[in-house]
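Methods — Computational structure assignment.
A single polypeptide chain was analysed. Its primary sequence is given first, followed by the predicted tertiary structure written as C-alpha cells.
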Amino acid sequence: MRQDNTTQRVAVDIGGTFVDAITFDRETGDISLEKAATTPGQPSDGVLDSVERVDADLESTEAFVHGTTLGLNAVLERDGARIGIITNEGFSDVHEIGRTNLERDSMYDINYQKPESMVPRRRRLGVPGRLNADGAVVEELDETAVHEAADELVEEHQVEAIAICFLHSYQNGQHEQAAADIVRDAHPEISVSVSSDITGEYREYERTSTAVLDSYIKPIFENYVDTLDDSLVGAGFDGSFFVTRSGGGTLTAESAKTAPVHTILSGPAGGLIGAAHVGDATDRDNLITVDMGGTSLDAAVVEDGSPVVKYDSSLEHQPMLIPVYDIRTIGAGGGSIAWLDGDLLKVGPESAGADPGPICYDNGGTEPTVTDAALALGFLDPADFLGGEMDTAADDAIDGIEEVLADPLDTSVSDASRGVFDVALANTVGAIREITVEKGLDPRDFSMVAYGGAGPMFVPLLARELGVKEVLVPQAPSVFSAWGMLMADVVYDFSQTMIAVLDDVELETLDASFDELEAEGRETLTAEGVAESDQRLERAVEMRYFGQEHTVEVDADGVADLDELAERFEAQHETRYGHTMDDPVQVVHLRVRAVGENDKPTLDRQVPRDGDALEPTGSREAYCFAAGEFTEFDVYERATLAPGDELAGPAVVTEPTTSLVFHADQHATVDEYGHIVITTGGEQ
C-alpha cells in the first residue's frame, strides 16, 4: 500500500518533440521541472527519462498525472489497430455512409476524394436483434450470430479490436453488453469498445464513429499504459496513476483503458486547465490560449473563466460524441517544416519531430523548420539552447534555409526566414478566428496566454496581428501544460438523451433523471477513492428551439422551476447568437459532471525588486517585425526579473527551456506572481 508520508505529485506531458515533467510537494510547495526528448519508438522511455531528470522520488509520490498524444497521433498517422464493427443487421454501412456531407473547406473542391474508411466493408458485420427508440426489445439479440461474427472478424480478418454499436443503445445497453461479453469470452485477447460505455447520447453514426475511434487506439493505448505502469511500479511507485481527459480533469489509468477515446486530446487539455487557473488568480475571465510546441500549435478559448467544451467534435473527419475542449490544432510548431509548393512558401503540417528534428539539432535533419528560421532571425541563442545543454548547428540551419528556400525564391536567408514566420502567423490567425470571430467573439476583448517551448517567441507577434490587448507569459511556460495537469481534478461525465418540449416536461421528472446520473457519478468517484467531502456534482442541460439542429448548454444547478431554466437558455442563446425566438424550447440532453477535488499548487506572490534597477544582461541583433529590419534587442534573464519591472521592446527574455521575444512597439511588465505581461502600442 502507499506510504502515509507521500506528499509529492508528478505530472508528465508527452509531446511530439519533448517530454515535460514537473513535481509538486503538497507540504513544502516546492516545484521542480525538466524536459527530455520524446522517444517515438518507445514513448514510455521518454517519460521515464523525464521523471529521472526531474529527480522525482517515486516511492514518495502519491499521484502520477499523465497527458499523452499517443491516441491522437495514431489517428492522425493512420497507425492504429486493425478493427472490425458488429452492429445491427442491415446497418453495417452506417459508419461509411455517415451524414453524406462535406467538410466546409472541401465543399467546393471538384477534386474532393472522400477519406478512406478506417473499417472496410468486409470487416463491418450485422447481426439480428433490435431495440426501439424507447429502448424496448423488439427482436431478441441473436447470440449465435454475434459469436459467428466475432469468429469471422478475428479468424478470417485478423482484427485486433472490435467496436460494438447497436441502434438506440443510448436508451438501453443490454444488447451491446451481451454482445461484448460474447466477444470477450470467445476471444479474450481482443480489445472491445462498446458505444454505451462511452456515451449516453443519440445519433447512431456519431456513436459508431466514436466507438470506432476508441477501438482504433485501444490496443496501442492499453499496451502503452500497462508498460508505463509496470515501469513506474518497478521504480517504487505505489500511488494513483491518472490520465488527463480531453474535456478537462483526469481519470484513473484503468478507467482510461476502458474508453481511451476520452484521452485523445489529453496533452493540450493540461494547458487549458492551467490557463483557467491563472486567469482566475489574476482576474482574467476571457482568455485565448496558445500552446506552441515542437510539433503543433494548439489554440483554445477560456470564456467567463471556463474553457469552452464541445460535445460533438471531430478528428480527421471522424465525429466524436464525447466532451472535449474546443481546441484548434494546426501544424505550426517549432519543428514544422518550411517547404515550397512551386514558388509558394508553406509551413507544416509535416514536422521534423524529435527525430531527426530541425536542422539546428544536428541530428540528421535536412529540411528547414520554424526553429531554424528563429535562429536565423536572432530570436534564439545557438550557444544557450535548452540552457546550454543541447549543442546546435546554427551554420547548418542557415545553409539549409538558403539551399531549400532562399535560393529557389531568389531572396536572402533573412527574408526567407521572415517569410516562414509570416506564413505560420497567417495559418494561426485562421485557427484563432475559427474559435472567436466565427462564434461571435472579438479577439480584442481577450487576453492571450502564451506557453509551450515556442509560444513565448511566437505569440507576441500573433497578438500584434490580431490586435489582442495583452499577452500573459506564465512562469515556466515551456512546461505549463504539465503544470496545468497538477491543477486537474478527477472528472467523470455522465449524460442522457431526453428529447422533449420543455412545456411537456415536469420539474420532478427532470430532477429524477438528474438524480440517477448524480448517483452514478457519486458511485464512480467513491470507487476511485474520492472522499464524499471532496465530491462536487454539476448539472447542465443541452437545449434548443424546436426545429433547430444545434444545441446550447445551459447551467441547471439551483434551478427553482422550468421557467427559470427557459430564461437561462434564452439568455445563453442571445449571448451566443445575438437573438432569441418565439418557438417552443426543447430539452435534448441532460449532463452531470462528477468532480473529485484535489490539492493544487498555489500561485505565490513574489517579492518586488529591492536595490538596483533592472539592467539587461546583454544584447544581440535580431529581426524586429515592428521596425521591419534587424536591430539591437536587449537581452534579459527571466530569473533576474521581479514584480514591478518594466521592459521596453525590442527585447528577448531567456530562460533555460524557452525565449520570450517582443518587438519595438511592445512593452513588458512583471506582475505580482512573476508573470510577464506584454502590451502593444498605447496599451502600456
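Note: The chain has a mean pLDDT of 90.
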